[in-house]
Each structure stands twice: as C-alpha cells, then as structure tokens.
C-alpha cells in the first residue's frame, strides 16, 4: 500500500513510498531522517514513530529546540 509523506521544515516537500508492515521509524531512517528529530502527524494527530505505518497520508514535521 502507498503512503504519501509531506515534509514540513525540510528542503524536500513530498514523497510517496510503498509500505508493507514497516514502522514509521524504519521508513524515516530509510529516507535518511532521524526519527527522534521529527513528529509524524496523521489526520492532524501526532502518532508514535514506532507505530506500524498504514497507507494514506502523513506529515513529517521537523522539531526545533533550543535553549
């Protein structure tokens, strides 16, 4: 099944990947993104990166912190 990923705070804007039971963290790592530096949002609700990805669309939002 296909998963469309829209990126917020990245140079890349959008990508579509095939998912077959992978977790969001695995997909992010395959795209070169550290899962600890982003929030995955599906249907306007943050989801844990260790959840199994389903088809549809998610946003990946870069988290910026400072002190």
From TrEMBL:
Source organism per UniProt: Archaeoglobus fulgidus
List the protein's name: MoaD/ThiS family protein
The record's annotation in Pfam families points to: SAMP2
* Entry superkingdom: Archaea
